[in-house]
Amino acid sequence: MPPAIETVDLVKEYGDLRALQELSLTVEEGEFFGLLGPNGAGKTTFINTLVGLVRKTGGEARVFGHDVETEYQQARDAIGLAPQEFNVDRFFPIKEVLTHKAGYHGIPEDEAADRADEVLKRVGIYDKRDERFDWLSGGMKRRLLLARALVTDPDLLILDEPTAGVDVQLRHDLWELVTELNEEGTTILLTTHYIEEAERLCDRVAIMNEGRKVTVATPDELKGRGTDTIAVRLASAPATTPALGAYAHETTVSGDRLEVRVDDGGSTAPRLLNDLEASGHEIVDLEITRTSLEEIFVDLTRSEDRTVTRSSAESADGGDDGRDDASAKRKREQEGVA
Ligand SMILES: Nc1ncnc2c1ncn2[C@@H]1O[C@H](COP(=O)(O)OP(=O)(O)OP(=O)(O)O)[C@@H](O)[C@H]1O
């Protein structure tokens, strides 16, 4: 079986702007794959290229072995997309929105109606089936986008920030649902600003910045790349900074508190305690702080001309978003993507 997604040197240019820069990425069938990156990193462009909303400038992109342009229909039929923005026909009852979608993908009418019922139940808005999109709450709209993505029973489910702006309960419901879908065999590509979400759900994550792939790793591997801090309280303040082995990347003393930056706090702590005791210090208390995935993410995507919002919640709720720039928006509208 070919990979669910395979891109080779994928390039997308919007005028002078290179939104994707030779991006090569492979997502295996059955994976739960996360795409992380600050605002404007190119995540939505990547997704839009896969689903045919954006035409690539160069490189290759395949979905289950089907070229996204020359074999558009096969590639597109394999994908269920829950986009970031609410692009739903507002004038139809939501059940009809779903049956139309299924019909568009060649599913016969009877089957489409059954599937619509089934997915509406699955996302928990079956009782709203005869209501119009506009009448749904924000959380229900998110659920509907997911239902619409699922109505064609896709092998690849793409979720572009599915939990942006939703309450904690719904976020947990959605996590449970997408985990189940993945366990049933659906490959999932998720973009998110919530690092915790990626850590909890994804087998592997790709971190993107300015259209480039910075790294691909499991959340654990990524965390392993950070440093830990061991904070030790001593019985009395040391006269000088204790001399430690090469494992201590940085040692700072403040009164009776010593902070030592190391690669792996758990395995280094016993050695540090031995060294301190051997040099005559009495230890009162010890605490290890692990680098969070969020800190590693910020380090990997830091760039001099951009301020990356540290709080995932802030950025998801509309932090520094270069796309609001009026001319970029106009250009997007011209391409029919906005
Ligand atoms: N249709 C378009 N026309 C012109 N520029 C665009 C268009 N779509 C996106 N861009 C630009 O391409 C870059 C990548 O945008 P994209 O939306 O893919 O990023 P993103 O990683 O999805 O960001 P966010 O996290 O804010 O959703 C940005 O600089 C954006 O302004």
Q: Which class of the largest domain in CATH terms?
A: Alpha Beta
The ordered H/E elements are: EEEHEEHEHHHEHEHEEHEEEHEHHH
How many discrete domains?
2
The average pLDDT is 86
Radius of gyration: 24 Å
- Beta-strand proportion: 25-35%
CATH topology of the largest domain: Rossmann fold
CATH superfamily of the largest domain: P-loop containing nucleotide triphosphate hydrolases
Q: Which regions have little confidence, pLDDT < 50, spanning 5+ residues?
A: 304-338
Instruction: For the record, give the distance between the C-alpha atoms at the N and C termini, rounded to a whole number.
Output: 34 Å
Distinct bound molecules: adenosine-5'-triphosphate
What is the tally of beta strands? 14
Helix content: 25-40%
> Structural class per helix/strand content?
alpha/beta
Strand order of the largest sheet: 6-7-8-3-9-10
Biggest sheet details: 6 strands, mixed
CATH architecture of the largest domain, by name, is: 3-Layer(aba) Sandwich
Q: Helical region count?
A: 12
Envelope shape: elongated
Region (Disordered): 302-338
Family: Belongs to the ABC transporter superfamily.
Domain ABC transporter: 5-235
Keywords: ATP-binding, Nucleotide-binding, Transport
